[in-house]
Amino acid sequence: MDSSLSSQQSIPDDIAIKIASSLKVSDLCSLGSCSRFWRKLCGSDYIWECLCKKRWPALALEIESYNNQPHEEWRVFYIKKHNEMAGKAKGVIDFVNRCLAFESIEVGHYLKAVRDLDSILFTFEDVYTFFLKSKHSVLLNLIGLHYCLIWLGLPGECVMEILNKSNISQREVRVQWWKLGRWLFGFRLRDELITRTVSLEDLATGKEEEVLGVLHRGAVHEVIRVQISEAKPECTSWSFQNVQNAN
């Protein structure tokens, strides 16, 4: 008998399950391709049920209902739920892309996208899988980051680990907001335009709390408009100034 197979089969089941349960899905699938022993163990209902509960804790009632009825393998349930979340993520991404005007997005549309992630019960792993990736624009990265920090209440260091892993921590966005002009001697001064260029790391580590606060509150009180765009060295604010002058 192959010595490696023999050593695998000599591992107590509880230890083997603990090892497999600690892995990410991609690593679990890779481990399952190593031998018949690991293929059977990594495909067990127990492990995939745990993965479902760990990834989607807010779906506890749906998972419990599934558990109490005749059902397919938990691995099948996991794949279906993952594909369902992928479809919902695509809906949010398509909405954001439709709302882009001159490569920028108004804060009302931006906040709707963030709220949509909450309404479909996105978890941190969902956000990481579908939004915090280098293949997406920095605006989609920002929406995922905002949701993690504010709606999920995750600590910045936890999110930073994912930003670094995805090589997007140094990506920058430009946030511009207009504040109502102050009153002086009975006259209201011109509205004030504030522009900030910040990295995703700055927002995650709390270095730009004011900018994150403006993004989260949106156009309220003295802030009459907020616009977010990808920061590009060649970009200037002429288009925004023209809009302001036209108004």
Automatic annotation (TrEMBL):
It holds the Pfam family F-box-like. Signal peptide: none annotated. Residues 5-51 form the F-box domain. GO terms for cellular component: SCF ubiquitin ligase complex. InterPro entries: F-box-like_dom_sf, F-box_dom, FBXO4. It comes from the Eukaryota. Gene3D superfamilies: 1.20.1280.50. Transmembrane segments: none annotated. SUPFAM superfamilies: F-box domain. SMART domains: FBOX. One of its GO terms (biological process) is protein polyubiquitination. This is F-box domain-containing protein. It comes from Solanum lycopersicum (Tomato). The lineage of its organism: Eukaryota, Viridiplantae, Streptophyta, Embryophyta, Tracheophyta.
